[in-house]
Design brief:
heterodimer; A: 390 residues; alpha+beta; Cytochrome-c3 Hydrogenase, chain B; 4-stranded antiparallel sheet; 3-stranded antiparallel sheet; 15 helices; 9 strands; globular; B: 211 residues; 3-stranded mixed sheet; 44% helix; elongated
């Protein structure tokens, strides 16, 4: 059997490991990694063809977590889709909420009060801290340093999730943004606690970096591994930290300037090599920038309502039209495309998930590396299967 | 020096290891069934129905079976049947009430949209989390008797919200009473006016020529 015959591999047929004959490489081994595999970050499957330990072909297979998100949204009201967006990227429900609210506000021409805009920036940047802390923790899990770095990261994440719970009522399924503002106004105590946490965050980052950034094993395992060329990344539509790690400066917070981001002073960190190590450092540097944004936001947070008084909760019907709202989610460009026909339900509802599109170049990054490295490369791309499969 | 990165990392983990035995801030474990962590006030899980009076829960449900929550519920886990007759609510106005009100908590995702759309403050979020049942079909399908909880319970779990709702309802009730009073007064005045012209027109007619 030649390599070209591998495309006939179907999930239901045959064993998960089998021998494949190839005229160039000799004896190859085809391994089906996942969907129940601890290193694939959910129900993701990679069909990997191995020459010894080296990957010669990799086919990502997804769809195991498909929940019909878009069709459900077309059959429910605009407001009714908001809790479902929590379940897209379940690590970052605040930013997915915001992206959807932004799209609907664009569609309906809904204004948002200043305090709510600031609050959205605060919550989005805290979500970025949560997501990136998780990611670097899981990345080390994939490298084989079982659990210590992950639990250090989770310790900090827990503090932010406690704040989210105190504000929105739920740790992960926040369902917080509304069309025209936010659901709850934070109390001064909450703001003080959040501000204190943010001020202490650099200490955690320093500790984490002392522990791991200069670790020789980490450097050997990540530098020069899984290089992503900037040109290829742009052509494939890769966004977020993955693209910036390759050295291409594209951050929607600067490019689009949505929300109140133009009011904040922050830098966009850029990588030079596009390897796994750059993608790791990108997350650490972005967390440091997020802390800066948060400190400015807590300083400048204005008073006033968090919800536009003219915003409608019941009987929300935007005029016929279409809108695309996008934000820089922690994983990349997250967009919602909506078409309204004047009824309470959207006529078309489409999600542009960063995780799925960042996953398309996985094979290019993994070819020529060992199977153990392909696990680390997948970890550094940062996917959440809820968003990939929708 | 090769290996210094690893050694520095080990110093951090060693510090944390020692700290986890001495630093009171690090001892965060709560021995769950005996001890309980305090839930934040905003914590939400599964809706419940508010009754005004704990002794007569079914007679004093705030819900008027308008079915807005049933329509707005994203996973469609609420089922309501309107009553055939009417009962007076807290202001004395006759209102429909739910003959059947059921929530399938195995479907509910605790999103709070039913609470936000309810115009009568009749449905609120609970804070229960120990809701295991042995029967998956009926154990988690709650009917109105199981869902009804008194207003005092709402005050217990969400004190700020409950106080706000109560003052708002009180002002609304007062406004309604004043309006009713004003309406009654206006009605009386109108009735008096309606009665008066017959008496008043005549003298005017009589007085007309004299002017």
């Amino acid at each position: 059997m030649s390599v070209s015959d591998l495309s006939s591999f179907t999930p239901s047929s045959g064993p998960t490991v089998r021998a494949v004959k190839d005229p160039f490489h000799g004896d190859l081994l085809e391994v089906s990694m996942g969907p129940q595999h601890p290193s694939t970050h959910g129900v993701f499957r990679m069909v990997v063809t191995l020459d010894g330990e080296v990957v010669v072909k990799l086919k990502p297979v997804f769809g195991y977590l498909h929940r019909n998100h878009e069709k459900i949204a077309e059959n429910t009201t605009y407001l009714g889709s908001m809790p479902y967006t929590d379940r897209l990227d379940y690590l970052c429900s605040m930013t997915t909420n915001w992206a959807y609210a932004l799209a609907v506000e664009k569609l309906a021409g809904q204004a948002v009060p200043d305090r709510a805009q600031y609050l959205r920036v605060i919550l989005a940047e805290m979500t970025r801290l949560v997501n990136h802390s998780c990611l670097v923790g899981f990345l080390f899990n994939d490298l084989g340093t079982s659990f210590t770095p992950l639990l250090y990261a989770f310790r900090e994440r827990e503090k932010i999730l406690d704040l989210f719970e105190a504000l929105s009522g739920s740790r992960m399924m926040c369902n917080f943004q509304r069309f025209g503002g936010c659901r709850v106004d934070p109390t001064p105590e909450w703001l003080a606690a959040a501000s204190r946490l943010v001020d202490n965050y650099p200490r955690f980052l320093d500790e984490y970096e002392t522990m791991l950034t200069a670790n020789e094993i980490m450097l050997a395992r990540t530098q020069g591994i899984g290089i992503l060329d900037a040109k290829l990344a742009v052509n494939a539509g890769i966004t977020g930290p993955c693209l910036r790690a390759s050295g291409y400066n594209y951050d929607l917070r600067k490019v689009d300037g949505y929300g109140f981001y133009p009011r904040f002073d922050f830098k966009v960190p850029l990588g030079a090599h596009g390897d796994t190590y750059d993608r790791y450092m990108m997350r650490i540097l972005e967390m440091r920038e997020s802390v800066k944004i948060l400190q400015q936001a807590f300083r400048d947070l204005p008073g006033g309502p968090v919800m536009d008084p003219k915003a409608k909760i019941r009987g929300f019907r935007p005029k016929a039209g279409e809108a695309y709202g996008r934000i820089e989610s922690p994983k990349g460009e997250l967009g919602f495309y909506l078409i309204s026909d004047g009824t309470p339900n959207p006529y078309r509802y489409r999600v542009r998930p960063p995780s799925l599109i960042n996953l398309t170049l996985l094979e290019e990054m993994c070819l020529g590396h060992t199977i153990a490295d392909s696990v680390v490369i997948l970890g550094s791309v940062d996917i959440v299967l809820g968003e990939v499969d929708r | 020096m090769l290996g210094s990165g690893i050694i520095n990392g080990l110093i951090v983990t060693a510090k944390n290891f020692v700290g986890s035995y001495h630093d009171p801030k690090r001892m965060v474990t709560v021995q769950y069934p005996e001890e309980r962590a305090k839930l934040p006030e905003n914590y939400r899980n599964f809706p419940f129905l508010i009754t005004e009076n704990a002794t007569d829960p079914m007679g004093t449900l705030r819900c008027v079976a308008c079915q807005i929550c049933e329509k707005e519920c994203p996973p469609q886990c609420i089922y309501i049947e309107k009553s055939k007759d009417k009962k007076p609510d807290a202001t004395g106005k006759p209102q429909l009430y739910p003959a059947v009100f059921a929530i399938d908590t195995s479907v509910c995702m605790s999103c709070q949209i039913c609470v936000e759309v309810c115009p009568f403050d009749a449905i609120k979020m609970d804070q229960v989390f120990e809701v295991a049942a042995t029967d998956r079909f009926t154990g988690l399908l709650l009917d109105r008797e199981q869902l009804a909880k008194p207003n005092s319970y709402f005050h217990e779990i969400h004190p700020t919200d409950a106080a706000e709702v109560d003052t708002r309802l009180a002002t609304e009730r007062q406004a309604a009473e004043e309006k009713a009073k004003a309406a009654a007064a206006a009605k009386a005045a109108a009735a008096a006016k309606a009665a008066a012209p017959k008496a008043a027109v005549k003298p005017a007619a009589e007085g007309g020529p004299t002017a």
